[in-house]
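Hey, quick one: can you model this chain's 3D structure?
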Amino acid sequence: MVGAFWVLAIVCLVSFSAKAGPWPQPNGVASPSWLLIDLSTGQTLASRNELQPMQPGGLTALMTTYLSFVALRDRVIRLEQVIASRPDAEVPAGPRLFLGPQGARVKDLLDGTLLLGAHDASLALAWAISGSEEVFVALMNQTAQRLGMRQTRFVNASGAFHPETTSSARDLAILASTLFQDFPEALTIASQRELSFNGIRQTNPNRLLWLDRSVDGLMAADAADRSSALVMAKRPQPLGPREQIQRRLLVVVTDSESAERRVQDTQRLLNFGYQQFDLIRLYRQDEVSATIPVFKGAQPTLKTEFRQDVLVAIPRNQQGGIRSVLQYPKGLVAPIVANQPVGELRVWFGSQEIHQVALVAADSVRPAGLLGRAVDSLRLWIGSLQERLGGKPQPAASRL
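Sure thing. Here's the predicted structure for all 400 residues.
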């Protein structure tokens, strides 16, 4: 809880005087909607029409995959469990794993769903997890809202075309990054070039798995008049003079006019991201960034840290254009739990804000006793009264 009269305390952490150049933009990308994200930092490096509504089509299977991994984690289903197939009349036209009447293991159904967007595999998983497709679709939409996928509405579990199904490049990026973060083992499936089941061999439509050795996922879907994909890649990148990191990028390309154009645009965006941006470390995870005053706590201050090393992607050879500011509320009230967000680091490149990183509590702070809470309540009340009488105080600033 933050007292209303307190303003943000601002601490300048990094500031360089060099003039920042323009932010790079990719050339020759023809697809109408796309997004390039550096998953090593969480930054969006470039985009076009990322919120434009689109038909996710076969990419719907990404949500079915995510919920299947959730069900595996929660022991609703088991990897070696054999699931019955749905009647052929219930399976819409489109890609299939070609299940027989004997069904298939959950492992095989996951392969078919993520590699091929197989409608029969997706439906079998939906019924096994929720007991019906209708209930599963409701779960899909609840999960989409929880993840912040504001442009997304699912109508079926298979990804078959439906005019009311909608999403956006940004929403699909949220889903893909969540899947990777929560269940990185999904990339083991997505990196397979082909799949054999019931004596039928089918090829992964993500052609970049053959063209670019750094690509290891995630999913591609082709329809009669459009082609879309979510592609992940990792390449070694320098991080300072003596260190390298496996830097991961995510590209979302939607509504390309053809599979060929989708492949070309995706490859162009991957190369652009790796070639035009440097990765730098601003702070290590264990660096204590600030000590914050705490009200109504058993101790008067709180040590803070970052959840992980603070990495930032910036235009190549322009480290001098970086400025970062640490912001936190001065009216922080106990109790506080370790790892709880209590502020943020904001990073600018010139006048453009390019990154935000959560500042978290390094330790927990228990509430103070009755007398301590009463004294701090009085202090907060006096401060609030001073604000009302004297106007809003100016932010404090100091250089570390």
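One thing worth noting: The chain has two domains: 8-19+283-399, 33-276.
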